[in-house]
Specification:
heterodimer, A: 670 residues, alpha/beta, Spore Coat Polysaccharide Biosynthesis Protein SpsA, Chain A, seven-stranded mixed sheet, six-stranded mixed sheet, 14% strand, B: 734 residues, Rossmann fold, eight-stranded mixed sheet, five-stranded parallel sheet, 19 helices, 25 strands, 15% strand, globular, disordered N terminus, metal-binding (chain B), transmembrane (chain B), glycoprotein (chain B)
Chain lengths: 670, 734
């Protein structure tokens, strides 16, 4: 009985369990997360007859295409190939003529005209020009300034249209390219028109305010966001994404905030710029402040978008997805934030900080279109020092420049060329030649004979080839890109200089670590002279320096090209008139490119005292030289020189250890 | 007997249940204490659970085959069996494409909503066969390539099978080739798709647009707002930033095996291999050939061969027969001339052969031009300048040509070689537009792998000298040497540019001294306690660090003078992206042992600095803590050694630059450091350090350290100059 009951209970229990199991099991299966066999059949099926499917194009089909003869452009629009006649530019290079402006010109326009006239592409004759520039003047809204003579349907014309007020005829300007401040993507013709930044009235002609970024990473206390306001100022907001800071709808629940009056620069990591037109000014402010612009409208063509890779410096987001954008900003990795911040500063300094830079960039873009294959590579536009300072005529290979070795994984090649300039007294620098030729890193010696006396017919036998070139009797000739220079490194020397072989060897070694800088032995320092109200410089020995003398210095041969082809002619003339100026000019140039000080290496004391001509005019420079530094600063628009407080010595320099251990022991001889 | 049996079962159940953590309910220990009457129920219960478990297990593993076999029968269908959809003649037709469409006007981003992975979701409509009222099919159901394309999307991360979560819709209606379809009916088929909604967020793929006689450059099928990935856009039809320009796939890519040929000068300078060339252009090409002789080769159809499939693979010049596409590898530059259509499949063949394409097709929008930098891989010659093509090409230096050849080949490998590559690149471009903050960079799109490997992008690339006023934060890592710690604090606080002092208290067993006992200094002093005694705590990016410059200093470094530290900070300002330290060390290749060796002798070279006292940018703390490659961080913590070598590796690897050694200082006079003077401890120390270098070099996959022969001294250091006029007169000795 008991056992029967037990058995029946047993059975009932097991039956109910089975039932439960059967019911529960399908649920269990559902709970098992996405197994491959549950999702796979949902994808695109693997057809049984895949192999039998026809190809989209039959082999015989393509040749059947009836090829068509050349045809006129359709659609009434223009592109570079159809509307620009580049043949004239190819033969004579880019030459720009500016149509004379009729009527009164504003200060802003005067600056533009002046900056184009200072360009190396400017020409005064319309016949010679292959690009004709036409400045569209401020006229009542809805009208357009009249077209000039020689309009020729707008062919090879560039219309500079700097006014936000749209000229309805812009589209009827025929074949003219339009360079316009912040155009919309709808009317912009990519590869033909040029997008300009909207410049404030007071934008400086040249030089311009440097970027505001003082440190690479954002300061911990700085707010995450600043929002551009309608009235022109900036409002900083905390990191709370629920404050939806760009449409004012949730104004009441915003955290601590500040309103900056118009004109001041935002102090935040990201600058949100809504997509209304006046905000184009905000864009430049953000760049200058090193605040990463976040454009909330993809409607605007960003300035110089043809060549500048804005994804490296700004974020173009869609204002329709506010929370997503804010979340993305908050979660952005530090590495990306750092890169974006630095890029804003580089772009500001390279292309936007002055009217001159903006206009020269515009012309450079057109020059690049003409060049075709030998235009600036994208790397040259988008990394320091920027395309205005990296001339494609020097080389089409970035590794030939001193700036891109890291990005290219390359190193400066080979040895150095010693370039000895022999001036007035005309004494062949025999000792110097022997000292330099003794260096195993010396590839060649070039003597630039600039003396009235004829050069001697016999030169000493040296281990390396020695070439004598006839100089032009001009000081700036020292920095001409002579074809004979075959190496990246140049050791620039003066006939009077005196260096030892080991000094040269060590300096060359240091230069290889800093190929974009000047590495020299003797230094000058610049200072602001309160009494005179101007810049001054001194050759006295001091704890700081900002220039190295080119009478004994290593630098990259690219600077010869830059010196000769990019400096304004007026500055080079100045250098020719006052020979001490040439050193200052070269130092200005390199500092403007690198934004860094030159490098000093040790120099034996005995030469220092034995060679007074190295320090022109004695310890106190002559008045003309003093003028020189101020004229240079005016020509550049700012003071590019940067001071350094260090000298690079050999590792064991003057250490109390055995001389035998030291590689550069002769550097220490008193 | 039965009892025994049950007990055995019990054990078995126990074993199984204990093994399965998930089902381990309390365990068998309770059972013996119960009455035997209840016991039986429990046993029953357990056995049933056991049964259930076994059943579950079986379902877990078996259904796989059962279900997939049933799926198999469903999935492996024939294309001929797909459902047929009849399109009434009067069914709606979409508007023609809207030329003013842009992402912000015609694209519905709300569908792409928030997505933590920043990846769009793509839905593919299922395949149907469309027929008109008379039952005549609208087009070929699907081509091999379009099937391949949809398969590629379906296999990718973009794919979703949930139509309501999709952001982008891809119709399965094949419009790759306009010639194979009926335009009006295809448009009607599009319009009846379930989520068509004027074509919003729909993506169509078309490689051969237009038809005779005027060959439009975009697909003629009315498609309203749909995005078009088209292979032959001209600037007039291409909607910048909305459409995607794609290549025309060359079937030869899959059919022919063509081994890669490296860059360099080739037999022919310029080659034209196209068969369908307009007579006017052919005249121009032949004129080029006549002028430049052997260097130019213009090929044509072979007329004397019997017609057949092979004719696609043959080209002729006079009576000479050439194999195509092999002949492309014999030329440096290859002409890609427009036919009736702008996009030509020959572009793909040319790139594959590493021949630099000379594109002669005015207004042609090159494939993926939104992201690819075609200047690096091609030369564009205006049609009217064709006669000057040769001289234009001649002006390109050989080095640049080789670079272009390499780039051409890489473009083919990455974006042309298969339908899959084309499909994924198209989706990536659209993805980049929708999630711009997560977009691929120019370098990621354009740099070939070899360049990517060799290049360094310095995270602190902007040339910038931080203002002196910012000062630096000193971080002292300490365990329990309070006395020496206080001396270090007192010494360091004398440095003018110090702005904050942070003590990292690495001893969990002991509390730091009371506040009143600490030395009184002029700058804020903070103590951070750590959770674990780890060396990497020294390099943690503490929130308390407000300055960019960090001075890492050990709690026993008391010999550095204030001038020496201040000068170190000044040097860091001039080299903010480097490690600036005092004693330098060197790594050497040991030729006998065939591995790296650590060197602390009096050498003329330096490749590392000790971080017992070193200045660096605080960003490197972030990198050390969160981005250190491999297991180096844990390895260092486990070995309690070499954190400084790891930091040297990290900084050198990411910046590509050498360290800066400052002043003559050769060693720190501390108990540990005396070891390097040649005591027995020295040997093990050196061996350990050498091991670290070898370990790190293998993790980094390269030796990032850079050797230099210079150090930084004050300008007037050891010059014959009055000491009192020098800025840093008190620079210590060795």
């Amino acid at each position: 009985m008991q056992s029967w009951r037990g058995k029946s209970l047993w059975l009932a229990l097991s039956a109910s369990w089975l039932l439960v199991l059967l019911r529960v099991f399908p649920l269990l299966r559902l709970a098992v997360p996405a197994r491959p066999w549950t999702s796979a059949p949902q994808g695109w099926p693997r057809w049984l007859d895949t192999e039998l499917l026809p190809s989209f194009s039959q082999p015989g089909e393509l040749p059947e295409d009836a090829p068509q003869p050349p045809q006129a452009p359709r659609g009434g629009g223009c592109d570079w190939g159809a509307c620009f006649d580049a043949s004239k530019c190819r033969t004579g290079g880019l030459k720009v003529f500016v149509h004379p402006v009729a009527g009164p010109v504003s200060a802003a326009h005067r600056k533009i005209l002046a900056s184009i006239e200072s360009s190396r592409y400017h020409t005064a004759s319309p016949e010679e020009a292959c690009l004709l520039l036409f400045l569209s003047l401020e006229v009542p809204a809805g009208e357009c300034s009249p077209v000039p003579q020689q309009w020729n349907g707008g062919r090879n014309h560039l219309v500079l249209d700097l006014h936000p007020a749209p000229c309805p005829q812009t589209f009827q300007r025929g074949r003219a390219m339009v360079a316009k401040a912040s155009p919309t993507v709808d009317t912009f013709r990519p590869g033909f028109d040029v997008a300009l930044p909207l410049l404030p009235e007071a934008h400086p002609l040249r030089g311009g305010a440097p970027g505001q970024l003082r440190q690479h990473s954002p300061h911990p206390g700085v707010p995450l966001l600043a929002l551009a306001e309608e009235r022109g100022g900036w409002r900083t907001a905390g990191t709370d994404p629920s404050a939806c800071p760009w449409d004012g709808r949730c104004e009441q629940d915003r955290g601590p905030e500040q309103t900056h009056p118009g004109g001041t620069l935002p102090n935040a990591t990201f600058c949100l710029i809504p997509g209304h037109r006046p905000d184009a000014l905000h864009f430049l402010q953000a760049l200058q402040a090193g605040c990463i612009p976040v454009l909330l409208s993809p409607r605007w063509e960003l300035p110089f978008s043809e060549v500048i890779d804005w994804t490296k410096a700004a974020i173009v987001a869609d204002e329709r997805l506010p929370f997503q954008v804010l979340a993305a900003l908050q979660e952005m990795p530090l590495t990306r934030v750092l890169a974006l911040r630095q890029q804003t500063q580089f772009l500001w300094d390279a292309y936007f900080s002055s009217v001159e830079k903006v206009m020269h960039t515009t012309l450079e873009i057109i020059q690049d279109r003409i060049f075709g294959a030998s235009a600036h590579a994208s790397l040259l536009w988008n990394s320091p020092p920027g395309a205005l300072l990296a001339l494609p005529t020097f080389s089409t290979s970035p590794s030939d420049f001193p700036f891109y070795h890291l990005q290219r994984g390359s190193r400066p090649v080979g040895r150095f060329s010693a370039l000895i300039w022999v001036g007035a007294p005309g004494q062949p620098p025999l000792k110097l030649i022997q000292a330099v030729a003794g260096s195993q890193n010396c590839a060649q010696i070039l003597v630039l004979w600039s003396s009235e006396k004829p050069p001697p017919s016999r030169w000493p036998e040296t281990a390396v080839p020695l070439t004598v070139m006839d100089g032009q009797r001009k000081v700036s000739d020292r920095f001409f890109p002579h074809r004979a220079i075959s190496t990246d490194a140049i050791l620039s020397l003066d006939g009077h200089s005196s260096v030892t072989t080991s000094e040269v060897d060590f300096a060359f070694l240091v230069w290889q670590s800093f190929p974009e800088r000047m590495v020299g032995f003797l230094t000058w320092n610049h200072f602001w002279d309160e009494a005179q109200g101007g810049w001054g410089y001194t050759a006295e020995r001091a704890n700081e320096f900002s220039m190295v003398l080119t009478s004994a210095a290593f630098y990259h041969r690219y600077y010869h090209t830059l010196f000769t082809h990019s400096l304004p002619k007026a500055l080079r003339t100045l250098a020719d008139e006052a020979p001490t100026c040439v050193d200052i000019l070269m130092n200005f140039l390199v500092a403007a490119v690198t934004k860094l000080p030159p490098i000093k290496v040790p120099y034996g004391k005995q030469h220092f005292e034995a060679t007074p001509p190295l320090v022109p005019g004695g310890p106190e420079p002559q008045p003309t030289a003093r003028d020189c530094i101020n004229q240079m600063a005016a020509g550049f628009g700012y003071m590019p020189l940067v001071s350094s407080r260090l000298r690079l010595d050999p590792v064991l320099f003057k250490d109390p250890v055995s001389v035998l251990r030291k590689k550069y022991r002769s550097l220490e001889k008193p | 007997m039965g009892q025994v049996c049950l007990e055995r079962e019990e054990e078995a159940a126990c074993v199984i249940m204990c093994a399965s953590v998930k089902y381990n309910i309390r365990g068998p220990a309770l059972i013996p204490r119960m009455k035997s009457k209840h016991r039986i129920y429990y046993i029953t219960l357990f056995s049933i659970v056991l049964l259930g478990l076994i059943a579950t297990g079986m379902f877990q593993f078996w259904p796989h085959s059962i279900e997939s076999s049933s799926d198999w029968s469903v999935e492996k269908r024939s294309v001929r069996d797909v459902p047929v959809v009849r399109l009434p003649a009067d069914s709606p037709i979409p508007e023609r494409g809207d030329l003013s469409c842009r992402m912000h006007t015609c694209f519905d981003v709300y569908r792409c909503g928030f997505n933590p992975k920043n990846k769009i979701k793509v839905y593919i409509y299922s395949l149907k066969k469309y027929v008109d009222d008379f039952g005549v099919p609208v087009s070929n159901t699907i081509s091999r390539e379009y099937n391949e394309l949809l398969t590629a999307i379906s296999d990718s991360d973009y794919y979703t099978d949930d139509i309501s979560r999709a952001c982008l819709f891809v119709p399965s209606i094949d419009v790759l080739n306009q010639n194979t379809l009926r335009i009006k009916e295809t448009a009607q088929a599009l319009a009846q798709l379930s989520r068509w909604d004027r074509g919003t967020n729909h993506l169509l793929f078309n490689m051969l647009p237009g038809g005779p006689p005027d060959y439009n450059t975009a697909l003629d099928v009315p498609r309203d707002r749909a995005l078009l990935a088209g292979g032959g856009f001209s600037t007039w039809t291409y909607r910048q930033g909305y459409d995607v320009s794609i290549p025309v796939y060359s079937p030869l890519s899959a059919e022919v095996d063509l081994p890669e040929k490296g860059p360099g000068p080739r037999r022919y300078f310029l080659l034209s291999s196209q068969m369908a060339v307009h007579p006017e252009y052919r005249e121009d090409l032949e004129a080029l050939q006549a002028r430049h002789g052997e260097a130019v080769l213009v090929l044509d159809k072979c007329t004397n061969l019997s017609e057949g499939v092979l004719s696609v693979r043959r080209r002729c010049h006079k009576h000479q027969v050439f194999d195509y596409p092999q002949v492309l590898q014999e030329a440096t530059f290859c002409v890609v001339l427009r036919g009736a259509r702008l996009g030509q499949a020959v572009l793909s063949d040319v790139l594959r052969a590493g021949c630099v394409p000379v594109v002669i097709a005015d207004s042609y929008v090159l494939p993926f031009s939104e992201v690819l930098d075609w200047k690096r891989a091609s030369v564009v010659v205006p049609e009217e300048k064709m006669s000057e093509a040769y001289s234009i090409l001649q002006s390109i230096p050989q080095r640049q040509i080789e670079e272009m050849q390499r780039q051409a080949r890489w473009f083919w490998e990455a974006y042309f070689q298969s339908i899959k590559a084309i499909a994924l690149a198209t989706l990536q471009i659209i993805n980049d537009r929708i999630y711009p903050y997560a977009a691929l960079s120019y370098e990621e799109w354009n740099d070939p792998p070899t360049v990517k490997r060799g290049s360094v992008s310095n995270p602190l690339f902007l040339p910038l000298i931080p203002p002196q006023s910012q000062g630096f934060t000193a971080i002292v890592l300490t365990y329990d040497r309070v006395e020496s710690l206080f001396r270090v604090i007192t010494e360091v606080s004398k440095v003018p540019s110090l702005s904050k002092l942070l003590v990292v208290w690495n001893n969990q067993n002991k509390n730091p001294p009371e506040d009143s006992l600490w030395p009184k200094i002029r700058v804020p002093l903070k103590v951070v306690r750590t959770a674990e005694n780890k060396l990497s705590n020294r390099f943690f990016p503490y929130d308390e660090i407000e300055t960019e410059a960090v001075l890492a200093i050990d709690d026993d470094i008391i010999m550095l003078t204030s001038d020496e530290l201040q000068f170190g900070y000044e040097v860091w300002r001039e080299f903010p992206d480097r490690l600036v330290g005092y004693p330098g060390r060197l790594h050497l290749w040991d030729h006998e042992m065939n591995k790296w060796k650590y060197e602390s002798e009096w050498t003329n070279e330096v490749s590392m600095v000790l971080t017992g006292a070193a200045f660096y940018h605080k960003y490197f703390n972030y990198l050390y803590t969160y981005k250190m490659p491999g297991d180096i961080k844990n390895w260092v913590d486990a070995h309690m050694n070499c954190e400084d070598i790891a930091m040297n590796f990290l900084v050198a690897n990411v910046t590509g630059k050498a360290v800066i050694k400052v002043t003559p200082r050769k060693k720190f006079k501390c108990p540990e450091c005396t070891a390097i003077d040649g005591l027995s401890l020295d040997q093990t120390h050196m061996v350990e350090r050498s091991e670290c270098i070898n370990k790190f070099a293998s993790v980094f996959g390269t030796m990032p350290l850079k050797v230099v022969e210079h150090r930084a001294d004050p300008v007037l250091y050891k010059d014959d100059f009055p000491e009192k006029l020098k800025s840093f007169p008190n620079i210590g000795s060795l």
